[in-house]
Amino acid sequence: xxxxxxxxxxxxxxxxxxxxxxxxxxxxxxxxxxxxxxxxxxxxxxxxxxxxxxxxxxxxxxxxxxxxxxxxxxxxxxxxxxxxxxxxxxxxxxxxxxxxxxxxxxxxxxxxxxxxxxxxxxxxxxxxxxxxxxxxxxxxxxxxxxxxxxxxxxxxxxxxxxxxxxxxxxxxxxxxxxxxxxxxxxxxxxxxxxxxxxxxxxxxxxxxxxxxxxxxxxxxxxxxxxxxxxxxx
Length: 233
Ligand SMILES: [Zn+2]
Hints:
- It is built from 6 helices and 6 strands; from the N terminus they run ββββββαααααα.
- With 233 residues, it is of the alpha+beta class.
- The strands form 2 sheets. It has a 4-stranded antiparallel beta sheet, with no helix packed on it.
- It is flat.
- Residues 9, 11-12, 14, 47, 49, 52, 54 line the site of zinc ion (ZN).
- Zinc ion binds next to loops.
């Protein structure tokens, strides 16, 4: 691992390059068994950002076989993957975003792999929460609420929301009760979660950043005019 690779820390969201803060170990099931030889690979990565330095632990189980020439195992198909620390891919969002939105989002991420149905249900509710809070739309069916913000959002954002709305079962059930649990594939839940992350960034975080930038301009402006006054001009 001399080259290093790009990586985004799930704790601090920084884009960093990992060179020497990664350690990998593996354990192999050698005993004859019904499912064949398996190898478990554990990977620790420590974030090189000095303000973070938190570790991430990822575990992967592979089918494996003895390497023809070397002493180590040859890894075959990936059987299962567990993200142990932190427990999901949920990103950390600032606390000016409404708490119920963050809770639904975080939990949807946490259960995405094992319970995609429940994850998608939470993600739909989260999407509705965002649209209602941010755009103050009249509460109704999610599909109508999405329609109601068509003229308020930029085209590309609305196209993305609309694209997710059209996907498989999620789309079909946006027109019905939001709390209904429906069959979905893990990647459908993932798609909804990605959309939520994009909207949180584009709407809440952008609005807050803009507010901060404009406020600092106002502050500088008013300081300058005070200086002018005290100088008697
Ligand atoms: Zn970090």
